[in-house]
User: Which sequence fits this backbone?
């Protein structure tokens, strides 16, 4: 959803934003009751999910996500990098309405999952760029 | 950045979620990881067997490779340097295959036919694997048939055994089927360990035409072309220990131009 910000200065229509111009949330900490971007850790435990009998390894994995003004909701089909790119594109089109992406994963690490299928076959699935190790917030 | 501030919070809050919310969260995690979900029927507790042990070795190797950064061709001992020296010929290509694979699948042996000591020569043993549950959008880069050789009594240790694996291409009634040689290895009779045969060509045929999957046939011969029974030379079959039963492992790589689902 687009977040309208009336406090930002009005720009002329032809005044294209410079790519390096600071975004709305570049100055930290963010005031006006807004929560500054923070990186959080979420541990996904396969045993807590009740999958220990069919997921052989790992026991779980640590995922990182950003929460705050520059959050990128991680969905099933979009990763944080895609969100950052899209937000940057939308910011270039509507600089007054959408802040520049100021946070994106800078290091992604792979994870592998080993599990059984219906036919007792064992599958090793590798995800090359899955877990965000560091981000730019 | 405030890192790890909420560590453990979501972990514990998962227990407080309602049944429906838990299901939704589980579904989302499954979707992110590309997992199909809990196998059906619900699997009983399985004792350790050969394929899961091999896959665990592979998993640890892949995880170590990920920790050390991309491009590190670290392959576990059991994969790149199996006990039998003849297998070392597979080490280099397999190392690359493992590093580059996006999915690795092991297949359990479903059928085992045999012509053994009670029947006329040549002796052989057949194996069959069901390759139908395959990852979508991925292609086979390599496939191996792995069989364990134990030491047996009454054999000359220095004798060389020629073990060959064929793809059964066409079965004919009352006649021998059409066979195509896939791989052959020469092994000292006095050695024990895993043998890995390259069956990539056959697996590609089976993927393109699943109905053509008639399995593979294994022959053992001495240097003077004398046929021997697989069981007699110590090759472990379905009736052997679970940790030494034969299986097939296939390496897949995602297509370079993946089809993105419309959003």
Assistant:
């Amino acid at each position: 959803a687009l977040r309208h910000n009336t406090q930002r200065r009005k720009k002329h229509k032809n005044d294209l934003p410079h790519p390096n111009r600071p975004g709305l949330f570049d100055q930290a900490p963010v005031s006006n009751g807004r929560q500054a971007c923070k990186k959080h850790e979420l541990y996904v435990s396969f045993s807590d999910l009740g999958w220990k009998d069919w997921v052989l390894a790992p026991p779980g994995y640590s995922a990182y996500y950003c929460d705050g003004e520059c959050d990128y909701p991680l969905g099933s089909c979009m990763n944080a990098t895609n969100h950052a790119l899209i937000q940057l594109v939308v910011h270039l089109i509507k600089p007054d309405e959408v802040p520049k992406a100021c946070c994106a994963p800078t290091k992604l690490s792979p994870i592998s999952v080993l599990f059984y299928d219906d036919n007792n076959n064992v599958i090793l699935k590798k995800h090359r760029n899955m877990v965000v190790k560091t981000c730019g917030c | 950045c405030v890192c790890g501030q909420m560590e453990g919070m979501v972990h514990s809050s998962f227990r407080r979620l309602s049944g429906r919310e838990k299901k939704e969260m589980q579904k989302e995690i499954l979707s992110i990881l590309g997992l199909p979900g809990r196998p059906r029927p619900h699997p009983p507790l399985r004792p350790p067997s050969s394929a899961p042990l091999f896959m665990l070795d592979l998993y640890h190797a892949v995880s170590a490779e990920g920790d050390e950064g991309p491009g590190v061709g670290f392959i576990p001992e059991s994969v790149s340097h199996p006990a039998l020296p003849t297998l070392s010929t597979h080490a280099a290509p397999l190392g690359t295959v493992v590093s580059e694979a996006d999915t690795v699948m092991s297949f359990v042996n479903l059928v085992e036919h045999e012509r053994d000591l009670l029947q006329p020569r040549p002796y052989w043993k057949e194996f069959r694997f069901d390759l139908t549950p395959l990852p979508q959008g991925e292609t086979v880069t390599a496939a191996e048939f792995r069989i364990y050789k134990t030491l047996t009594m009454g054999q000359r240790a220095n004798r060389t055994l020629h073990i060959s694996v064929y793809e059964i291409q066409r079965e004919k009634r009352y006649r021998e089927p059409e066979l195509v040689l896939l791989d052959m290895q020469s092994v000292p009779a006095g050695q024990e360990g895993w043998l890995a045969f390259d069956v990539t060509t056959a697996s590609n045929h089976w993927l393109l035409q699943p109905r053509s999957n008639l399995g593979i046939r294994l022959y053992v011969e001495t240097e003077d072309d004398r046929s021997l029974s697989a069981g007699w030379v110590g090759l472990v079959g379905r009736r052997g220990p679970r940790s030494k039963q034969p299986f097939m492992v296939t390496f897949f790589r995602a297509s370079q131009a993946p089809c993105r689902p419309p959003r």
Q: What stands out?
A: Strands of chain A lie at 38-45, 55-57, 60-67, 105-116, 122-135. Chain A is about 10% helix and 35% strand. Helices of chain A lie at 80-93. The interface with chain B takes residues 37-45, 48-49, 51, 53-58, 64, 74, 76-77, 109-128, 135, 137 of chain A (CB under 8 Å).
